[in-house]
Amino acid sequence: MPRRCWLYNQGLVPYAVAWEQQRSLVAERIQDPSLDDVLLLLEHPRVYTLGRGASFEFLKFDPNMVEWEVYRVERGGEVTYHCPGQLVGYPILNLRYYQQDLHWYLRQLEEVLIQVLGIYGLQGERLTGMTGVWLEGHKVAAIGIKVSRWMTMHGFALNVCPELSGFEKIVPCGITNKPVGSLAQFIPGITVEQVRQSVAAMFAQVFDVELLRSKGMGNWEWGMGNGKLGIGNWELGIGNG
To answer: Which domains does the chain have, with CATH numbers?
Structure first.
């Protein structure tokens, strides 16, 4: 019998708010592992995030001297960029009900996105030794996760139709020789709303879950304070942005 997973389709959500949503959902499920899984699908305003071990050398600006939001978070991987037009997915899954294998989980996330690209006639691919999805040599999806007591958070970011200029201010995921791309470069006019339905469907198929649609997350209007200061004591973080 497929495991139940609640789908929360959200619009443009400040990074700090979505971060707090994830941490709250994970904490609840660590306390009560019987709770259903969750998939958050959303977009972010312009923001840069660095994994917990990420190097500032991959920033082309001083994070203390700009108006852009910059957060160091508990996922793995280097610096990445989020903005409108990029579909972000945050699965909150209890891997005890799937496979207790982080590399399996990363490959599953990649498979979801490769299957989504296939729906639109695009051939996504993996690159040996790297995490993410590429399309004709362009990285169109970044993945970085955090796992604590086999509960996942953070996830993937798929470039559907973003303004890519924000990536010029960083070395995305610390990879110097692979350009960033978007689906819109191959399918002009494609929208996040189109793709989010495909992502939800492929996520359910690849992870073999029963996706239940929720109307909302309640009141999540508070922020997280100064994200540049980092966070507390978490466990495994994996990915390369």
So the answer is: 3-239 (3.30.930.10)
